[in-house]
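Per reviewer request, we include the raw input and output of the structure prediction for the construct analysed in the revised manuscript.
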Amino acid sequence: MMNIKAVPFLLILFIGMTFSVHSQISFDAQVSKKRLGINERLRVDFKMNENGDNFIPPSFTNFLVVSGPQQSVNRSWVNGVSSFSKTYTYFLSPKTKGKLTIDQASITIQGEVYKTSPVEIEVTEAVEKPNDPNNIDYITDENIQLVAEISNTNPYINEGISVVYKLYFRNPISITDVQELETPSYGDFWSNKINIGRVQVNPRGSYKGEQYNEVVWQKVVLYPQKSGKLTLEPLTLNLSLQVPSNRQDLFGRRILTQGQKTITAGKRELNVKPLPTQGQPDSFSGAVGEFDFDVILSKESLKASESFQAKIKINGKGNLNLFNLPKLNVPNTLEVYEPERTENIKTNLTGMQGSVEELYTIVPQYQGKYPIPAVQFSYFDPKQEAYQILKSQELLVDVYDGPVAGIASQNTNSIGAKRPVTEVDSSFRFIQLETNLKPIKTAPFWASLKFWILLGLPFVLLLFAYLFKRFILNKSEDSSSVKQRLAKQLAKKYLSSAKKALHNQVEFYEALERALHNYLKAKLKIETTELSKAKIEQLLLKKRVEQQLAKDFIEVVENCELARYAPGSAGSIQTDYERASRVMAAIDRQL
């Protein structure tokens, strides 16, 4: 029997889970602009992230509905997470000037009624050049932005800053391809680009308080190398777009058209401050950031003629590879070799982090106690805007069991003294004066071991070649045949999985593209890394496949790449599936 005290807890848990589910649903009203002239047109989008029914638009008082509602649905699948959006679009023309309000719209989602918030619009006098929401240039200008986000526009010399280039775009625009036309050279900076891997789309990005699709295109860390006003050159991209046109199909939906758009982040200026000269230590060598400093000895006690290492280590955050480490000063009686520099640095958006080391190898010649003087390191901290000085401890090395410096010099000076001459009789006693010679017996060559080795060597080589072909080459051929068979089976598997996913555009084209790639691996015995379009066409023509058939195969692959980012219909999906099967069968017959 259930405990009565547990019932309120379960009820609260159920209500919390229900609230969590509903809190994920959004239904918003978005406008193309909140201030426009009375002779301009306004675009209004009612957007939801779950499919709903019974959409009731506002009354649009003081507005004339030019066109609408136009309905669009977008589904995407990014990193295993699916997203859905459904939009009702209206184009309005204001009837009067002043502050006008677009009332609430409502829709029913999962049995619950959701409403948008009212949107206030300011209508002014007529403008000279009214913007037409149906114009392609106006649509792209209003819905695409390329922004350079700079972490600090007023840094010090050698203070790290980050620049993140973000591309924002929103409905009704979809981007099919991006090419980088101009890349900043960063001539007055030390720069390091951060690898962002595969470009991903964040459908919940925000730009100026409005929701956009966000793409992080490039990340770079900069360290200015001189003071004054420095200019960041612009990043320029060329975008291939799909934009709604003025034409409509039989169902009243706007027909998409292809377009090109060149967009730039624009030049940005930085005001770089020089490092202060007042209070700058003599040991300062250009380090800017936050650091720790230490001097470490591998041994503090050793025998003469043995070696030990002294390590100067700096770790922290800043321009780690842009300054010199302080030098190590030791007594002249110690032999010091040139230091070995080691860097362990990682760079992210906050700058360089890690450590820099210089390792000195030192060899003492005489016994004694040798002091290692303290080493001083200074750096500039941009957060505190002040110089910091770090100093290591004075160390002592004890060298024992070796010559003493004064006695060794006396022994060296006595090398030239006269030595007693040995007697002649005892000087050559190591020479053997009597001999005992014996004749050398020689055997015929055919009876020697060398003869039999040379005679049997060809037979051994023949046996080795036979075994090599039998057990290694054949095994490799069998392995290649097995791989080919597996690739064929995998291609059939993905082709069948593509057929099962005809209802889902993204999953269908991903499965179809994998099937095409694995089919080529089976037929042409190549790896996936070799599957560039030019390479595919070259290999097919080399295998005497008809040129038109090779081009058909390339077009199917390109359709897969394009269709994953562009909306399509069930008819086009079925056509692509049948065309892929037909092309694969035709190539199979010719091969």
